[in-house]
Amino acid sequence: MPYSSVFVLTGAGISAESGIKTFRDKDGLWEGHSILDVATPESFQRNPTLVNEFYNQRRSQLLGGDVHPNLAHIALAEFETNFNGDFVLVTQNVDNLHERAGSTAALHIHGSLLHGKCGYCEQGFDIIKDMDHQGSCSTCNKSGALRPDIVWFGEMPKHMQKIEEAVYRCDLFVSIGTSAAVYPAAGYSDLARQLGAKTVELNLAPSEKSGDFDKSILGPATQLVPQFFQELLKQ
Ligand code: APR
Q1: Angle between helices 221-234 and 71-82 (to 10 degrees)
Q2: Tens-digit pLDDT profile for residues 151-172
Q3: Where is 187: in which H helix or E strand?
Q4: What's this model's pTM, rounded to 2 decimal places?
Q5: Cα gap 51→112, rounded to integer Å
Q6: Measuring from atom 8 of ligand 1, which residue has the nearest CA?
Q7: Among this protein's residues, is 110 annotated catalytic?
Q8: How far is the CA of 127 from the centre of ligand 1 (A)?
C-alpha cells in the first residue's frame, strides 16, 4: 500500500443510488426549493414551520424503510476495517448511510438530520421523529427555536479543526459524489494537493474541480467506489 493516510470526502452523489436526491443535479433538491427559503438562519427566523417541514420530509424518507446504504457506502466501511493506516471519512451528507453501512467515525461537516438543537442555547439532542419549533428546550426551557442541527448557508461548518488536521496529514485524498460547489469542503482537495497528497475524484459527471485533481474517474459511485478501494487494498 503506497499510502499511509487516506482522506475521503463524500457528497450527495454517494447517496443518490440509495434514492436520496442530490442538491444540484437535474431534479435535485435545489431545483424544487429555494435555498433562501429552507437553508439559511434567516429562513428559519422567517418561517420555522416551513423549514422544519422540509427537513421532517427528508428525515422521514431516510428512516421510512426504503432507503438503504449502497455498495459505495459499504465499500468505504470495509476499507475502514481492512486498512492498517490512518483513515478519515468526512461527509457533507446529513443522512446516516455511512453509519448504517458500518463506518464508525464519519465526520458530518454539515450536521445530521438525526440531531436537533435549540436555537437559543445550542443544546443538541437526537431526533428521529418530526420536529416542531414550538416545543420547549429541556436545557434552557425557552420555546420556539427547536431546529435541525444542520449547517445552513452562513453558518460555521462542524469539526473544522479535526478535518483540517486530517487534510494536512493525508497522502491520498479521494472526493466522491460532490459537485465541489460549497466551501470549505470544496477547497480541501486543493489544500491536500498543494501539501503533496495524491488527489482523486470519483464522480458521475465532471465537477467544478475535476481539472484540478490528479485523476478524475467518471461513473456511478456504486461501481467506482468498490472498485477503487478494493484495488487500493491490493496495492
Ligand atoms: N455517483 C457518483 N456521483 C454522483 C451520482 C452517482 N450515482 N449521482 C450524482 N452524482 C454527482 C453529481 O454529478 C454531482 O457532481 O454528485 C454530485 C452532487 O452534487 P451536489 O448536488 O451539489 O451535492 P454536494 O456536492 O454534496 O453539495 C454540497 O451543498 O447545499 C449544500 O449542504 C448541502 O452538503 C450539501 C452541499
Answers
A1: 20
A2: 999 999 999 999 999 999 999 9
A3: none
A4: 0.97
A5: 15
A6: 13
A7: yes
A8: 25
